[in-house]
Amino acid sequence: MIFTADEIARQIEGKVLGNGALLLTGFSAAGTARPGDLTFAENEIFFARAEQSAAAAILVDGDFTSAGKVIIKVANSRIAFAKVLTIFFPEPVFPHGIHPAAVVAATAQIDPSAHIGPHCVIEDHVRIGARCVALAGDFIGARSTLGDDVILYPGVTLYPRTQIGSRVRIHVGAVVGSDGFGYVLDGGVHRKIPQIGHVIIHDDVEIGANVTIDRGALGPTVIGKGTKIDNLVQIAHNVITGDHCLIVAQAGIAGSTRLGHYVTLAGQTGIAGHLKIGNKVVVSAQSGVMHEIPDGEKWLGSPAQPDRQAKRQMIALQQLPELLRRVAELERRLAASTSSEDGPDPAS
Questions:
Q1: Average pLDDT over residues 248-257
Q2: What is the residue range of 41's domain?
Q3: pTM of the full structure
Q4: Does the residue 252 lie in any domain?
């Protein structure tokens, strides 16, 4: 697709410095840019690379000028970068209708504008909203509901009674609504506690590949609106996340824990069960959280602690080998001094 610099600027609320009629044929990083491409720079180092590249124009948010490139100036280059990508690389458009190889229950209600791909299975009393897309091999269990503009990538499984809002994306292999891990010891064996709840996913959520979200034991497991979940995340039964949380790859949240709004859990974070994590909390990578965290705090480590306390302990641990060496040397000197003060053994 080809756009003028002015057309791009209008769509991203930018201002052109230079030839607004310049034709832009693509978008690329500076290192791989070709003539006609638009690239972006968010600091002086990237701008220098962009100026030396073959790109025709540069997207910036600072006070940059160029003698050889057209500049498109915006308030935030990262946000504009995300918007520009959707202009040059629009979403694929799927045909309306149900593929002949799909299996759809007679009681299912599917909007005529939806796309149901081959080998999908849609059970009784499912409701699917406008412009939804279910790609090959998806399973949607009985009495589940999908709002508008939902995309299920291939191989997604939604257990019965899953409720999904609008503009939700669920990537390959994700499983939503499987049994929570609930057992009670009875006569030396682990008796299963039936998991009879369900999962509610609110609007504008994105769920990565191979994520598992367990249904509640009694009530729902809830994912708040705007939350983004990376690949390979495990969310246990009766967890409730607030709105706009970020949960990064390989994190795990144990049962009945509640996250506030705008919580960030970095990669491989583990959260114990029945905890309350406050609003705007950040937990650093590979941390193990065993205690509740108040609003706005940053924790790290395993077991996790407030970041300043944890950093002090990490620095102390790094100094420990030298400290042990110095203590050993002092003990050696003390032993030698004591031996010389005692004098020779009278019996010798």
A1: 98
A2: 3-88
A3: 0.89
A4: yes
